[in-house]
TrEMBL record:
Keywords: Calcium, Disulfide bond, EGF-like domain, Glycoprotein, Repeat, Signal. It holds the Pfam family Laminin_G_2. GO terms for biological process: developmental growth. PANTHER family: EYS PROTEIN (PTHR15036:SF93), PIKACHURIN-LIKE PROTEIN (PTHR15036). It comes from Phaethon lepturus. PROSITE patterns: EGF_1, EGF_2, EGF_3, LAM_G_DOMAIN. This is Protein eyes shut.
Length: 398
């Protein structure tokens, strides 16, 4: 499989192959090779239907029956490749040549790549298009960069301070404690502190411990499974207890959640009903829509278990089997490659649940979670030892 964007005889060309055939799209207009004009390029696919947009002029390749998943296992290359052997012969029109020009603001699946010296995995013969120490977006938040003998300086808008205008003025002298995030409140000329896992208080200066995690909205826990390399990914299992008075919310997302093709197992609420979604490679959704089981938002503790045996899925609610389904009798994909990552309650600050889950779940979880067990482990996972923010001690009253 591959997806390649290239410049061919002055035209932008998109080629992709999902495993069965190569689809080719090409712009109608040529890209001028003179001048310093920047061009906006958008390209991609939805299923096996491709699109290519150059400076607002769109070309779409209507889909025909066939494969609809892009399965890639190599690094992502910009401007060229480290070895021509990595280029599929069908990905380009002629012999592959490296790109000569300037590229900026690369966004893959709503996440911008950092084109810096340290962030990429590697590269060669790449310089700064600006030709000065200012470069592109050296000054953040619409700051103006000025070249000086000693380097550069940034002139910042009145709401921002710092050497690169990276800090909100309301957070410049904040009292937020260990690892806390400062969130500016411009309307009140103040700020609030979002506490890292294990801390609480107005300024996140009070250490706490708990075995019941309380999610209050804009909260999450990200747990990395240390035993992932030893797991049998064809036979996965997760169980937990939860309580809430909300009818919507993502309880757990077992997967990396980096792009649409990542495997995952997700449990959440939709219209007060427990909803389970499984992706083993084909984004197969398994929602539970049974009016009998719509009382999950009653502020009582509920025990949920999802068992994956290759493509056979069992879902238990309060120890009663409520779903038993083979989501792919052909058994094309049988392993849950969750990449060792489990999210609870939501995702990192700034990542919206409805966007990351492509609408499968509408909002973050508000409520309490406890007693999380992965696979057949004899111990509950230590939530306190994970990464997270805005999660509080839910032990009180239980």
């Amino acid at each position: 499989d591959f997806l390649c964007i290239s410049l061919v005889n002055g035209f932008i060309q998109l080629r992709y192959n999902l495993g069965d055939k190569t689809v080719i799209l090409q712009t109608f207009q040529m890209v001028p090779t003179s001048g310093n004009t920047w061009h906006s390029l958008k390209a991609g696919r939805v299923g096996n239907e491709g699109y290519l947009d150059l400076d607002g002029i769109n070309i779409t390749q209507k889909a025909s029956p066939g494969m609809n998943m892009l399965d890639t296992h190599t690094d992502f290359f910009v401007g060229g490749v480290s070895s021509l052997n990595l280029v599929n012969p069908m990905a380009v029109e002629n012999e592959p040549l490296s790109f000569t020009g300037c590229i900026r603001e690369i966004v893959i699946n709503n996440r911008e790549l950092k084109l810096t010296v340290t962030d990429p995995k590697g590269g060669a013969n790449v310089g700064d298009c600006d030709g000065t120490v200012c470069g592109y977006t050296v000054c953040k938040n619409n700051g103006t960069c000025q070249v000086e003998n000693s380097g550069f300086s940034c002139s910042c808008p009145q709401e921002w301070v710092g050497s690169t205008c990276e800090q909100p003025i309301h957070c410049s002298q904040n009292r937020c404690g260990s690892q806390a995030l400062c969130i500016p409140q411009p309307t009140s000329f103040s700020y609030t502190c979002i506490c890292a896992l294990g801390w609480s208080g107005k300024y996140c200066d009070r250490k706490i411990k708990f075995f019941i995690a309380e999610f209050v909205g804009n909260s999450y826990i990200k747990y990395t499974d240390p035993y992932y390399g030893k797991r049998d990914l064809q036979h996965s299992r997760i169980s937990l207890n939860f309580t809430t008075n909300q009818t919507e919310g993502l309880i757990v997302w077992m997967g990396k959640a980096e792009d649409e093709d990542n495997d995952f197992l997700a449990i959440g609420l939709a219209n007060g009903t427990l909803k389970v979604v499984i992706n083993l490679g084909e984004r197969i959704s398994v929602p539970l829509i049974h009016s009998k089981y719509s009382a999950c938002s009653d502020e009582r503790w509920h025990f949920a278990t999802v068992v994956q045996n290759q493509t056979c899925i069992k879902v238990y609610l309060d120890e009663e089997l409520i779903l038993f389904e083979d989501i792919d009798p052909q058994k094309k994909y049988t392993a849950l490659n969750y990449g060792s990552i489990c999210y609870f309650g939501g995702f990192e600050i700034g990542r919206k649940v409805n966007i990351v889950t492509t609408g499968l779940f509408q909002k973050e979880f508000i409520g309490k979670i406890k007693d999380v067990v992965l696979f057949q482990d004899s111990r509950k996972i230590p939530l306190m030892k994970a990464e997270g923010y805005n999660v509080y001690n839910g032990n009180y009253g239980n």
